[in-house]
């Protein structure tokens, strides 16, 4: 994953001061590779990488982060911004029904989305109606009717079995769209979802039809549905639809597959339109609001490492960090007091177990983590508090009789004191390494 690659890139780097140009270039190379792996369009990758490079070169490395975390943070911020920042909600009409038109290539997932959206809106107390304007494919109308039935909403279609009492002109999707909106007004549906026809490729006639539907019904939202597996074609398709129907938002479909979501970045980047929803399966419930931050993590394949970074930044006491940094610089020994202070920092970050579970690679140590008991931190605290100040600074003097005394004082078994001293020795080694290489603070003390 990208985070592994970045960790490797920075293994020998000191975690202090400004990033050098060579460091940044090495990292940006990895980011470029990761984005291409995620199927982000080449020109988008190029532009993105240039921007990251510029920002990273000017960045000061924050105390709580090592350089790779710092760059990952910048990458994440940029990704989230391109993807639209905050999750964007549907804009509801102030008066009359809210009209939502769907556009996209054939097979993109429009008809399925119509049902998902209807079900979702219905659950929120709306009363949607679906309008079948795909009159090109023989079964398209029937498909929408089935979808509507499953979602428990009305479907307006130029077909026997339609809910309309109007005289609906068959064969003309623009007229059907108009009649559908009229039907919604009369039957007091507050949302109209207009399903349209697509083609396998971008096609002038289809685009013209979509444009005419748009002009006829003046939708509040035009959602461009795109298959997230589309890969490098995402840019051309998105640009064509943006020019053709000037969509207002993007829906990423089939995100349940192997797609890493690069299409989201490509489309958002070249059109500047927000991604609003994600479709994640064939069932009507496989549908969610799109969260730019989650997608950024998915694109970078980082688990929730960003959440970790954020929490580390928040919890890591700046003064404590400065004191530690000075200590390392002075080559002073890491003491049991420091060890305890770190354990307390970890506690500040929230549930240690939950945190560690979010880290990439955590599955390897999942079993150990599940056995980990947070009361362990309490026991460590009790044990360290039973030591004399001298013992805490020079644990080597803690012989057998001292161990027995400490165990009695803290109400634990001698073996637990031994275990703690062993872990401390490991942590001491780790802290020396961190001092040389930079890295995630606050991790020592984990029982192995
Ligand atoms: P349309 O041509 O744009 O209307 O696309 P459809 O809604 O008919 O979907 C085309 C195919 O993709 C159908 O077989 C759907 O079941 C399937 N499909 C749609 N959305 C998703 C999704 O989010 N995940 C998966 N796995 N399949 C989907
Ligand atoms: Mg369809």
UniProtKB/TrEMBL annotation:
Q: Name one GO molecular function term.
A: GTP binding
Binding of GTP, residues:
104-111, 195-199, 253-256
Look up the signal peptide feature and give its range: none
> What residue ranges carry the coiled-coil annotation?
none
Ranges of residues in domain SRP54-type proteins GTP-binding: 274-287
Which reactions are catalysed by this chain? GTP + H2O = GDP + phosphate + H(+)
Function in brief? Involved in targeting and insertion of nascent membrane proteins into the cytoplasmic membrane. Binds to the hydrophobic signal sequence of the ribosome-nascent chain (RNC) as it emerges from the ribosomes. The SRP-RNC complex is then targeted to the cytoplasmic membrane where it interacts with the SRP receptor FtsY.
- Kindly provide the name given to this protein in its UniProt entry: Signal recognition particle protein
Native organism:
Arthrobacter terricola
């Amino acid at each position: 994953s990208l985070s592994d690659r970045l960790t490797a890139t920075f293994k020998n780097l000191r975690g202090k001061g400004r990033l050098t140009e060579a460091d940044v270039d090495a990292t940006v190379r990895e980011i470029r590779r990761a984005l291409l792996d995620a199927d982000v369009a080449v020109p988008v990758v190029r532009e993105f990488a240039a921007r990251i490079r510029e920002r990273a070169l000017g960045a000061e490395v924050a105390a709580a982060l090592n350089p790779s975390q710092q760059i990952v943070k910048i990458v994440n911020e940029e990704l989230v911004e391109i993807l639209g920042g905050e999750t964007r909600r549907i804009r509801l009409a102030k008066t009359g029904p809210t009209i939502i038109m769907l556009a996209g290539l054939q097979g993109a997932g429009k008809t399925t989305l119509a049902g998902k959206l209807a079900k979702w809106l219905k659950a929120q107390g709306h009363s949607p109606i679906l309008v079948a304007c795909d009159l090109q494919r023989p079964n398209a109308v029937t498909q929408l009717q089935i979808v509507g039935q499953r979602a428990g909403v009305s479907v307006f279609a130029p077909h026997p079995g339609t809910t309309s009492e109007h005289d609906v002109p068959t064969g003309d999707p623009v007229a059907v769209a108009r009649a559908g909106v009229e039907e919604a007004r009369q039957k007091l549906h507050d949302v109209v979802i207009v399903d349209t026809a697509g083609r396998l490729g971008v096609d002038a006639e289809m685009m013209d039809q979509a444009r005419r539907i748009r002009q006829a019904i003046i939708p509040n939202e035009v959602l461009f549905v795109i298959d997230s597996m589309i890969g490098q074609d995402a840019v051309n398709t998105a640009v064509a639809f943006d020019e053709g129907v000037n969509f207002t938002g993007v829906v990423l479909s089939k995100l349940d597959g192997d797609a890493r979501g690069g299409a989201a970045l490509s489309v958002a980047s070249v059109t500047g339109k927000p991604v609003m929803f994600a479709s994640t399966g064939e069932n009507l419930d496989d549908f969610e609001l799109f969260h730019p931050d989650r997608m950024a993590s998915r694109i970078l394949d980082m688990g929730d490492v960003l959440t970790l970074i954020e929490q580390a930044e928040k919890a890591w006491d700046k003064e404590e960090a400065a004191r530690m940094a000075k200590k390392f610089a002075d080559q002073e020994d890491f003491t049991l007091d420091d060890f305890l202070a770190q354990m307390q920092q970890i506690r500040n970050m929230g549930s240690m177990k939950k945190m560690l579970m979010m880290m990439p690679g955590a599955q390897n140590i999942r079993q150990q983590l599940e056995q980990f008991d947070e009361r362990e931190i309490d026991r460590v605290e009790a044990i360290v508090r039973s030591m004399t100040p001298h013992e805490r600074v020079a644990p080597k003097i803690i012989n057998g009789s001292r161990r027995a005394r400490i165990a009695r004082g803290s109400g634990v078994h001698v073996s637990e004191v031994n275990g703690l001293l062993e872990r401390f020795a490991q942590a001491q080694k780790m802290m020396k390494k961190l001092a040389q290489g930079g890295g995630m603070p606050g991790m020592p003390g984990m029982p192995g």
